[in-house]
Amino acid sequence: MSDPSRTSASPARFGLTGPRSEEQLQATGWWSGGRPAEGAEPVLFALSRSPDPDLALRGVDRVREALGDQWPDLSDAVRSDPVLRGRLLAVLGSSTALSDFLVANAKRWRLLAGTESVDVERFTSTLTDAVAGLRDQEAIRVLRLEYRALLCLVAAEDLAHVVDPDLPFVSYDDVASQISDLAVAALRAALSVAFEQTHRSDECALSVIAMGKCGARELNYVSDVDVVFVGDGDIGVATRVASTMMQIAGQACFEVDAALRPEGKAGALVRTLDGHASYYKRWARTWEFQALLKARPVAGDEELGRQYLEVVRPLVWTAADRDNFVPDVQAMRRRVEDHVPSELVRRELKLGRGGLRDVEFAVQLLQLVHGRSDEALRITATTQALAVLGKGGYVGREDAVDFGRSYRFLRTLEHRLQLQKMLRTHLFPAEDDTAALRWLARAAGLSAEGRLSEGQVLLAEFRKHGNQVRRLHEKLFYRPLLEAVANVPTEALRLTTKEAVARLAALGYAAPDGALRHIQALTAGMSRRSRIQGALLPLLLDLFATTPDPDGGLLAYRKVSEALAETPWYLRLLRDEGAVVQRLAALLGTSKLVPDLLVRAPEVLPMLADTEALVGRDPMTIGNPLRSAVARHNALERAVAAARSLRRQEMLRIASADLLELVTPRTVCVSLSEVWVAVLQAALDAAVRAAGDVRPARVAVIGMGRLGGRELGYGSDADVLFVCEPVEGATDGEALRYASSLAETVRRLLSSPSQDPALLVDADLRPEGRQGPLVRTFESYRAYYAQWAEVWEAQALLRARPIAGDEGLGERFMEMVDPIRYPEGGLDATAVREIRRIKARVDAERLPRGADPSTHTKLGRGGLADVEWTVQLLQLQHAHAVPALRTPSTIQGIDAGTEAGLVDAGDAAELKAAWLMATRARNAVMLVKGKPGDQLPTAGRDLAAVAAVMGHRPGTDPGEFLDEYRRTTRRARAVVERVFYDS
């Protein structure tokens, strides 16, 4: 920066543009001969950095006139003492009210001199000694003078670094504490005068309880001081003392507001301790407990004040137990905001959107909910509470820092605005008031940046912090978890071991001792992680209690938490997203499949907060991202590993959406099928790339069974046929060797051991079954089906469709088998008898020993096999004449048979109901047990869990589900008897 004294003779170079600037500078002795006087440059530079240099210079000129012949002493001190210079010029350039005070009491300038910081310990003695022995107006006059002098000192130290960056910076927290301590000193001095004036101090005891910002030691420069009085002895005398104290302090220093007392302004000014206790226990409203959060005895009888806190503090920390506590506090904040005029809502620093109340309400609500069990949160100051909330994990570290930074910024602006004229204001300047914006920016220590003026920088910062406050307010204040935690009774948060075991047993935990061990393991130590778990677990315990298996849910939660302990966002997500906690508890308390998948696919967990993401895309296109992702891997093993990993993610997403009843059974089956198809396609493509550029055959994979029909369940194998065709110039032998190598590679890599559900590629439906070659050429299939195909093979082909490999070869394969699976003229009587014979043999021989045919989802009476064989018989008989029957889908086959008049509508409805119920029940068994199974459980928690998955509400008898299943499948079996066996 160039030296203005060398480059120009104009005061404007120092920001002094007033018409009398040069004249005023000359009068001070700091300007001579058209340039700065010798040794005055530091003073002029300091003036130039003042929030309003012209205002500061006018203030200096007025002080000079007031001092008269004593001015040289101050002038010399300003030149030589950087602390005095910074403090004086900062005050004079920031506050017309404090300038008036210094002009009226010019000899008090020495108060601003010296290097010592503000000594708050001397505030009380200074003010009390000053009014000792004084009464009435004289006491008020002296108290007003001494209070304003100390306030001027606090402001001078607060502002000094703006004028001289080398001077110490005093943080907002320290300034607010100093102002609060000064207010307390003023209350004590006023109380001493009040007692002096009554002459009956021995007849009563009185304690003054500071509330609001004074109680929290975060007072503004200009603010009412909220108090509550508690008395003992002669309450009439105590009331006169309290009233007198309010009048003295009000006339001398600030308004004293006792409206937060019980019953507000309609209530007694002073109450006894018992009176307060009785009111708060019986009549107090939610907001009154919120106000008591900041209560602090500050004057009068110390023992009475201590007893008051002992009465009210326990009530504060159980207030969140009240019905609708969280909604009440939220509604109160909305009412406050609604009272702000719409045209000022964005400029209101205190009450508007993104204002100070947004921070304070959010912090207080978090304190009142979580402070019931965590005593570290039982503090009064907003910024300190935010730090503890962040340290304890109740608020994200970055959120706590950002919230605190924005709060301090807004409070600093509030302080500067109030200092200007010592008026109670919270209104940010209008956007077109450039002069006010510039002054406020400079007073707040902001400077121009690039092409942005000081005012524009301030405006940008104000908007940024306001938007940030509002975002965090809505995130924290309306957090669903908050209300859920508040609904957990306080006594449930503070249990001894014996009480905890009893409560867990009452909640429905079968092994409460084991559950307690899980809780202790999760919350052990003093780490941030354990504190977050401590906040989450009371809610989770209640949520698990509503699931079919609370013990299993808690155990699964512990395993997931331990597995994801080093995942930085895991607990943060549970804390910040209430929907995630509630949904995760429902999943873990119902399913063993979900936690097994979750520890290996945690990236799905955030989807629980977003229903749209969880439901996912069109199931018919679900495999596209998987194929694209796998295609980026050149190494075969990595490509297949990626395919399996993505399958795991999709299976977990589908299972979660299924368990939460967000998707239909058909969507589940189609999604699982298309994921399987994508895995096969990706694995085959990777195997082809790994085999090299020499490709002697085209290879296609034909989906069969449930895969072909897009009806896969969670534990289904992939039934396929492998077909190849030699390219021009290659022999059948070369083609078969190449294709067989690809098929074996795909099967081996996909079926290798894993913690995920099995990936078995089953080719047993190929010609000659397991005795036949794994891969055949296209012509070999043609020859086999033409000469040797049996009726069951034609039946199996009904669900065939190309799923991977060469599309043209796959389509030609389907054209080749169409005459076999849709035989011209349908089936003759011999073929029909053969199908019925095979079905009867399956019923007799393949049902596992000891299985209950009434609850076996696959081979039981009215189960999947019954319905599917019935539909397939209709297809074999009539698909040649009814094109709509040419579908691999069981449900579409039933609908086509109904439309063609082959199945009665009522019978079709029974078949569909049974097939859908059996499909869902079979999937439910896999979800609940974590392993495939066709037999429904008939008792215990597994049955309760399966019933819950099937839509039966908690608390209902799971036996009702079995009755419904048997009833539905029994009706379907009656249809099968008529349509399959008798038609």
General description of the model:
- It contains 44 helices and 12 strands.
- The chain has 983 residues and is mainly α.
- The strands form 3 sheets. Strands 3, 4, 5, 6 and 7 form a 5-stranded mixed beta sheet that branches.
- Helix 25 (528-545) crosses helix 27 (570-576) and helix 36 packs parallel to helix 38.
- The protein is elongated.
- The model is unreliable at 1-7 (pLDDT under 50).
Keywords for this entry:
disordered N terminus, five-stranded mixed sheet, 44 helices, mainly alpha, 60% helix, elongated, 983 residues
General shape = elongated
Structural class call reads: mainly alpha
- Give the helix level as a range of percent: 55-70%
Mean pLDDT comes to: 91
Measured distance between first and last alpha carbons = 103 Å
User: Largest sheet, described in full?
Assistant: 5 strands, mixed
Strand content: 5-15%
Architecture blueprint of SSEs:
Elements: H1 4-7, H2 21-28, E1 31-32, E2 35-36, H3 41-49, H4 53-67, H5 71-80, H6 82-92, H7 96-104, H8 123-131, H9 136-163, H10 172-198, E3 204-210, H11 212-215, E4 225-233, H12 235-252, E5 256-257, E6 270-272, H13 273-282, H14 286-292, E7 296-300, H15 302-316, H16 325-338, H17 356-370, H18 382-391, H19 397-421, H20 434-443, H21 454-477, H22 480-486, H23 497-507, H24 512-523, H25 528-545, H26 550-563, H27 570-576, H28 578-588, H29 593-598, H30 611-615, H31 624-631, H32 636-659, H33 665-691, E8 697-703, H34 705-708, E9 718-726, H35 732-751, E10 761-762, E11 775-777, H36 778-787, H37 791-797, E12 801-805, H38 807-821, H39 829-845, H40 864-878, H41 890-899, H42 905-929, H43 940-949, H44 959-981
Parallel strand pairs: 4-5, 4-6, 9-10, 9-11
Antiparallel strand pairs: 1-2, 3-4, 3-7, 8-9, 8-12
